[in-house]
Design brief:
Mean pLDDT: 88
Largest sheet: 8 strands, mixed
CATH architecture of the largest domain: 3-Layer(aba) Sandwich
Number of domains: 2
Helix content: 25-40%
Strand content: 15-25%
Shape: globular
Distance between the termini: 43 Å
CATH class of the largest domain: Alpha Beta
Strand order of the largest sheet: 5-4-8-1-9-12-2-13
Number of helices: 15
């Protein structure tokens, strides 16, 4: 379903946007004018892993997957054209936390890390002064990033502390070298894509792991008939993380900045049993041509995965609803800026399921962004093109901190007096096949500008150089316009290539 106003309609109204600040609801204007006062609000950044805006009713989805997020939206600003910086956890999370694109922070690989300068350039370091900062994530990839930023975090809750099983142990011995110890453990014991260097150690690891998984299945199997929620050998119950956050919010020193990154609805899609089978419908999404990066999934298979994802999303939404109710009851919602977003989306089309792929279609990049400020009672719908790199400068402004000059984002509309430029470009990058410290010669880049989106491929033999879509008239990205609108395609490709030349120089 298209939004009630298209991006093209919005662009026609940009001349009126300077009046936005003047006609802002009184509670928002009052909040912005007093954001430098000593009564600085708390901040909670709540991230759902792999949550696509395309699967949420507030963005036009037909299944009622997120009723509690819809309830929260009635007191928040909703950004309808918000995009991730990458198509999987590492680059997407790093861009959200550092305010720069993947070609700048270079956390571009699975379990990658940012370049050293960005250890101290992140939302935690930006939130300076007397603020108390805490963070937690279910996702081991995101925890590697948080470990890099721990010098600016007062409490980094380790993934294992809210998990029912996490076999990682090396960081307990080498606590100050988490990333190195993690990779050492992977190579010595687990093997993954390579043979483990210790065959005996790997045998012990696998035996212990199988024993623990059997215990987990025995204890939780009835509650989770598809399997207990997990990722990369980390098993957890989502309720435990939400319970901890409910306790942490009022207990934290004021003001505080909290970062909470939960794994659902990221695969495997293992909801609690009461969410299995909740969507009894004959919903069939638009059938799309197979991508040249297809993983071989048929439409029926992809749609079955979509159904299971939607069930898992509904489970995650219920847990957010518990958090929302607790914040209302505690009164913490009255003095907290709450930001709800995702690190990237999820794909169920073109023969692909998930997000470990070079493609950069909208279900992977179009993610939710909802922001509620203290005292806000009305919903506001925002349609300008925005990016996850905009969150850091917006938080800086809202908490009375200087907006860092090194950031690549902008203060979000609704929190600035002037409009974002209508011809602004927003990017997303997948460069997992390129080196961290070398030239990015094998990658995919998406650039969104006005109503157009170009996906550019470099280093993939036999793959066309680019695809061009008009997102206003073709939100499903069905018609490649690169041949019919060659000038627009060439201009956007030149823009990407110029940025890559600067990056690779």
């Amino acid at each position: 379903m298209s939004p009630s106003i298209t991006r093209r309609d919005f662009l026609k109204l940009t001349s009126l946007l300077p009046l936005l600040y003047l006609h802002m609801p009184s509670e928002k204007a009052e909040f912005l004018s007093s954001s430098h006062d000593s009564g600085q609000p708390n901040v909670l950044v709540f991230v759902f892993d792999a949550l696509s805006a395309r699967n949420m009713p507030i963005y036009g989805y037909s299944r009622n997957t997120t009723p509690n997020l819809a309830r929260f939206a009635e007191r928040a600003s909703i950004y309808h054209s918000h995009h991730a910086g990458g198509n999987f956890t590492t680059p997407g999370t790093a861009s959200l936390l550092t305010g720069v694109y993947p070609w700048t922070h270079r956390a571009i690989h699975l379990y990658g890390s940012v370049l050293d300068p960005f250890r101290n350039r992140n939302i935690f370091s930006t939130y300076s002064g007397t603020g108390y900062k805490y963070a937690y994530t279910h996702n081991p990839q995101a925890e590697l990033l948080l470990q890099q930023f721990q010098a600016d975090v007062d409490l980094l809750k380790h993934t294992r502390e809210l998990a029912i099983y996490d076999p990682e142990y090396s960081d307990r011995i080498f606590a100050s070298d988490h990333n190195v110890s993690f990779w050492s453990e992977q190579l010595i014991l687990r093997g993954n894509d390579t043979k483990p260097s210790s065959l005996f150690g790997n045998l012990l690891f696998r035996t212990s792991r199988l024993s623990e998984i059997k215990k987990i299945a025995s204890e939780y199997g009835r509650q989770y008939p598809r399997g207990v929620p997990n990722l990369d050998d980390v098993y957890f119950i989502p309720e435990d993380a939400i319970n901890w956050l409910i306790h942490e919010l009022p207990a934290s020193r004021k003001p505080s900045l909290g970062y909470m990154h939960i794994l659902p609805p990221h695969g495997p899609y293992d909801p609690r049993k009461d969410f299995i089978g909740i969507f009894h419908d004959d919903f069939k999404p638009t059938s799309k041509p197979t991508s040249q990066f297809t993983q071989g999934f048929s439409d029926d298979s992809a749609n079955e995965n979509r159904l299971q994802y939607d069930e898992y999303l509904a489970y995650a939404d219920e847990e957010f609803g518990r958090l929302l109710d607790a914040m209302i009851q505690q009164g913490t919602l009255d003095n907290t800026i709450v930001i709800v977003t995702a690190d990237h989306g999820e794909l169920f089309e073109r023969g692909i399921v998930g997000h470990v792929t070079p493609v950069l279609y909208e279900p992977l990049l179009h993610i939710p962004l909802l922001i509620s400020i203290p005292g806000q009672t009305q919903r506001q719908d925002m349609y300008p093109l925005t990016s996850c790199v905009d969150i850091l400068p917006t938080l800086a402004k809202l908490t009375g901190q200087p907006v860092p000059e090194w950031g690549e984002g902008e203060v979000l509309p609704g929190f600035r007096a002037d409009p974002i430029q209508s011809d602004r470009s927003v990017y997303a990058v997948d460069a997992k096949s390129s080196p961290k410290h070398g030239p990015l010669n094998k990658l995919s880049v998406a650039v969104m500008k006005e109503n157009y989106k170009l996906i550019y491929y470099r280093g993939y033999p036999g793959i066309p150089g680019s695809e061009l879509f008009d997102l206003s008239n073709d939100p499903e990205e069905l018609q490649d316009l690169s041949s019919s609108k060659p000038t627009i395609a060439a201009d956007l490709q030149q823009e990407i290539e110029q940025r890559l030349r600067l990056t690779n120089s």
